[in-house]
Specification:
single chain, 683 residues, alpha/beta, OB fold (Dihydrolipoamide Acetyltransferase, E2P), Rossmann fold, 4 domains, seven-stranded parallel β-sheet, 22 strands, 39% helix, disordered C terminus, binds adenosine-5'-diphosphate, binds magnesium ion
């Protein structure tokens, strides 16, 4: 692969700037595509300008001044044969003042807006125009860039990179012809140097055949890379488990409920995987409350019965503690030894746990991030179970996997459903099992949106619920900017609730509490002693108290969709009819921001986690949605999963075809996209 430094005409500063853009070799430079295009192919008359459109006009500066009111601005009037236009610059250099001197002829390009003196352009691009200034023949690309790298130098560098060697086709013609896509070379040329008659709109919307070809190539590289990782995993050894008969049936017999069809189905999928000679990497997806924990426990028993150790990791101490207790309750009768490990144990407790893990005496280890720290040595780790996997980074999950030899099986669980397009792309390296059914007897949660002004009524509602023997959560607002403020709000709310409800036992739990305190508070709520639990969003994941049937979320407009869905999932776990009240703040007439309103509407109208996740993806985009999973893993840059769903489907089947029939094309294709899309997964 040609590195930038090998190109003689590239200066050191140019190379440094390109590197800032993440470009270190020529193929990547060619794949640095324009953000948009501007149409400098024609010159419009000022009189014919239309509001909102971008246009190029040419004329003479008839007046220019730096004005200071209402704020500092450089303002000039440009006149052509048909009329006048104001040019406005809020930031400017002395060189611009000089360029906009009275009498100068300029060609300017910008968006037409309405201003105090009629139409104006704010920060138009300006060129001195002479008799001989030619009009561009093609659309002008505008690239993403960094300070110090001009559009002109970027364009030039890209033109230099456009040699036959780098434009070589990686795919068999039959493949792209069938998809009605142009060749790679034609696409690259058209995108960087659009033809005079190119369809500007299709280019801007990225729906032109050339854009689609590159989006397809990128998606294909992602698919190929995922397949290769998948194949690698299938070629390595793993602990082989025997089917668990005795322990699992003993466990199931002891439960007060029967597994749902969906739970049985996924348990079977997992059981089969665990008997394979290669490591499982399966994602168990199921909406909040669908009963993933018992399925994980069955997998754990299969490992334990096969004489391997099992680790169960959760992202918060509260959740890990809850799992530990549940496992104790389910597994202690089966004489299974469970160790417990968190960052906040006393030295002695920790030593005891570490010894039990090292010696193999502990058959199941439950804990937080503390599980994958260096000091933890497993005797024989065969299965790592990761709850709420989206809360962990790639690196963290990897570290836990490295604790076993051979590579342990991995079961990841998540209540945040992955929309189909994402599971086909970013998650294509995993096998996925879905629990698509809730245990019977749950009554749907009623969601209400209530303006904060009506808080009084809500407090009354809480009082009534608690007096009737139900329990309630009061979730404090999320204050992302300051943890101190978040803490203070939680404390204030707690004080206020105690004052408001002298007849009730009120508890408080937040992230900054000492683990022992936290445990005590949660224990009080679980055993029903505490009626109202004031909490920060620490209770968002996993907390399971079936008797809690009312939840009030303050400032719900500040929270994200999946967060709200998860929080709401803390109620509706028992037979009682449950309600979730989303309090939102209306500040005088200041309306809720559009995004917040859209989120609240989605959560109000939907209870299906899949629909909510789909909307969340739509509102936030894949980068935000995927969150930590993607830390250190490149995102798709050209393809857009919503816009290019058909290409994603095509890429999936073409990947199979190439691997089967054109293995040499696979290597070439991955090499081109390497660093951009080649390495999607950290092994
Ligand atoms: P999640 O999938 O959100 O992690 P949990 O595993 O915490 O859900 O299960 C939620 C609750 O439902 C727990 O109290 C659990 O014991 C209970 N549960 C699980 N499976 C069933 C079932 N098949 N029938 C009835 N209750 C169940
Ligand atoms: Mg759970």
């Amino acid at each position: 692969m040609t590195l930038l430094a090998e190109i003689k005409s590239f200066s050191k500063p140019l190379i440094a700037n390109l590197q800032k853009l993440g470009i270190s070799h020529l193929p990547a430079l060619l794949l640095h595509l324009p953000l948009r295009y501007i149409d400098e192919t024609s010159i419009s008359l000022i009189q014919e300008l239309k509001l909102g459109e971008s246009a190029q006009v040419e004329g003479k500066i008839i007046h220019a001044e730096v004005s200071y009111k209402p704020r500092k601005a450089l303002i000039a009037r440009l006149q052509d044969t048909s009329g006048q236009l104001t040019l406005r610059f809020l930031h400017f250099y002395p060189s611009q003042i000089a360029a906009l001197k009275e009498g100068n002829r300029l060609r300017v390009y910008g968006e037409v807006r309405s201003g105090f003196f009629g139409y104006e352009m704010v920060h138009p691009t300006c060129k001195t125009a002479g008799e001989k200034t030619v009009v561009a023949e093609t659309l002008t690309p505008v690239y993403p860039t960094v300070a110090g790298l001009t559009q002109a130098s970027l364009r030039k560098a890209i033109s230099i990179a456009m040699t036959a060697e780098h434009l070589q086709e990686t795919l068999p013609a039959s493949v792209y012809n069938r998809l009605q896509l142009p060749s790679f070379a034609a696409s690259i040329k058209a995108l960087h140097h659009p033809a005079p008659d190119a369809n500007l709109q299709a280019m801007q919307l990225k729906t032109s055949p050339e854009w689609r070809r590159l989006a397809f190539d990128e998606l294909l590289a992602q698919q190929l890379s995922m397949r290769k990782h998948y194949a690698r995993r299938r070629s390595i050894d793993a602990p082989r488990f025997v089917p668990s008969r005795t322990l699992v049936s003993a466990l199931l017999k002891s439960l007060p409920f029967a597994l749902t069809q969906a739970q049985q189905k996924v348990a079977l999928e997992i059981e089969r995987d665990l008997q394979q000679p290669h490591p499982m990497q399966r994602l168990l997806q199921g909406d909040v409350g669908s009963g993933k924990t018992i399925v994980a426990c069955m997998a754990a028993l299969q490992g334990i019965e096969s004489a391997w150790q099992v680790a169960l990791m959760a992202p918060t101490e509260i959740l890990a503690e809850q799992h530990y207790r549940k496992m104790q309750c389910w597994l202690a009768p089966l004489q299974i030894k469970i160790a417990w490990l968190t960052g906040s144990q006393s030295k002695k407790e920790r030593e005891t746990a570490l010894n039990a893990i090292r010696s193999g005496e502990a058959q199941l280890v439950v804990g937080t991030h503390a599980l994958f720290q260096e000091s933890v040595t497993f005797h024989k780790l065969g299965l790592a179970i990761i709850d709420e996997q989206h809360r962990f980074g790639v690196e963290q999950r990897l570290a836990l996997r490295k604790k076993g030899q051979p590579e342990p099986h991995q079961l990841m669980m998540s209540a945040t459903p992955i929309p189909r397009t994402l599971s086909m792309s970013y998650y294509a390296d995993l096998d996925v099992s879905v629990i698509d059914e809730l245990p019977p007897g749950r009554t749907p949660i009623v969601t209400r949106l209530v303006a904060d002004e009506r808080r009084g009524e809500i407090l009354q509602r809480v009082r009534e619920a608690c007096i009737q023997g139900n329990q309630a959560y009061w979730v404090c607002p999320l204050i992302e900017e300051s943890e101190a403020l978040q803490l203070q709000t939680a404390n204030d709310t707690y004080a206020m609730m105690q004052h408001e409800f002298p007849e009730l036992k009120v508890g408080l739990v937040h992230g900054r509490m000492k683990p022992a305190e936290k445990q005590a508070v949660m224990a009080g709520f679980i055993n029903g002693e505490t009626q109202l639990l004031v909490a920060t969003t620490v209770i968002e994941v996993g907390v399971d108290v079936p008797n809690a049937s009312l939840m009030v979320i303050e400032h719900a407009e500040r929270m994200g969709l999946s967060q709200l869905h998860q929080l709401r999932g803390r109620v509706g776990r028992g037979a009682a009819k449950s309600t979730c009240i989303l309090l939102y703040q209306k500040v005088e007439d200041q309306q809720l921001s559009e995004m917040a309103r859209a989120r609240l509407k989605v959560i109000y109208e939907n209870s299906d986690g899949f629909v909510i996740a789909q909307e969340d993806l739509h509102l936030r985009g894949p980068g935000e949605f995927l969150g930590v999973r993607q830390s250190g893993v490149p995102m798709l840059k050209i393809a857009d999963l919503e816009r290019d769903t058909d290409l994603l489907e095509a890429a999936k089947s073409v990947a199979d075809e190439l691997l089967l029939r054109y293995p040499e094309a696979v290597e070439g294709h991955l090499e081109r996209w390497m660093g951009s899309a080649g390495d999607w997964i950290k092994v």
